[in-house]
Amino acid sequence: MPLPSRDFGAIGPNEGEHFPDVVLPDQAGHAVNLHEARTGRKAIVVFHRSAEW
Amino acid sequence: MSPALTANGVALFAISYDTVAILSAFAETHGIGYSLLSDEGSLVMRRLGLINERVQEDHAVYGIASSSRHVNLPYPGVFVLDETGRIIHKRFHESYRERDTGAGLIAETLGIFVGGCGGEVAADGDTVRVRAWLDSPTYCAFQRLHLTVELAVAPGSHIYGEPIPPGYVPLSVDVAPIDGLELRPMHWPSPHPFSVDGLAEKFWVHEGTIRGVLPFAFTAPPGAGDQVLQATVRYQACSTSTCLPPEGVRLEMSVKETALVGRSLPAKASTV
Question: Hey, is the C-beta of B175 within 8 angstroms of any chain A C-beta?
């Protein structure tokens, strides 16, 4: 059974837009402001399912 | 992936809905040096519009049992940001089965080539040196890997792209078929127009060092075993005065099967 078709380009913010501000705790429990932590560098932001399963 | 990124001045963040405790244990077990961010409750992923509301339905299609853990899951995907924080590339996948290797993603999106991650092979000719490598020495089923082919053409010579007049051989890469091997189109830099005094023919050529990237995946069920990728690189090198005969260089690269992190391969794979 095929999956229903879906426009994956429409998921989330678009190319050309500023990536939204995100502040989340890292694995050490320290709050990380993504844009501040980039310190002017390019960045890759990966969204993935649980590391646990 | 992380050292290659750091060396090239790229920050890496991985976001999931796991708790800090789970991420901490995962980072320790797998020696992860980059930031794993905990979006417990998936609030950020929801704000960004990344939640797959149909994940249960999709899992049913793939035969994965329903679970209370399968809610508030994001579509798996990647954003690439430039120095100002602007999104210069994004890629979301249809399922969790298809993933990118880190190096290949960097090569495709940032133009940074990380050689030698997988087995590298080379063939030296007088005029053209061919190198090829995979972005990972291992694969797991449905993971997207990348074959990079590099041709270094001696100064004063060129190789042909397309369109091409009859009688000449353009640059091409053929990969021998393997059950379950899915190849995507190969990306090359655009050739530039070229003409030779006294010849009416118009050519499109590559000069210097060029690299092409071929995304591929092994889509046979887990347990298919280790694979050998056989790629044949064809080209014809000429200068303004001399044309060499077409060459075909065959390169073999092996890639070992691995299970997803935290999973094991079916028993039959261990006997291979």
Answer: no
The verdict on B74 touching A (C-beta cutoff 8 Å) is yes
* B29 touching chain A per CB within 8 A: no
CA pair distance B157, B237, nearest whole angstrom: 6
Four-point Cα dihedral B91, B94, B99, B103, nearest 10: -20
- Between B16, B77, B83, which is nearest A41 by CB? B83
| Whether the Cβ atoms of residue A47 and residue A13 lie closer than 8 Å to each other | no
Which tokens sit at A13? Answer: 């913010």
Band (A3; pLDDT cuts 50, 70, 90): very low
Residue B19, CA atoms < 13 Å, CB-side half-sphere: 4
Cα B167 from Cα B177, distance rounded (Å): 27
**Residues B157, B155: Cα–Cα separation, whole Å:** 6
The arrangement of strands across the sheet holding B203-206 comes to B192-194, B203-206, B157-160, B237-239
Quote ipTM for the complex: 0.89
Residue with tokens 């090829």: B132
Q: Are B182 and B220 in contact (CB under 8 A)?
A: no
Determine contact, residues B149/B130, Cβ cutoff 8 Å. yes
Q: B126 with B155: CB under 8 angstroms?
A: no
pLDDT tens readout for residues B193-219? 998 878 788 899 999 999 999 999 998
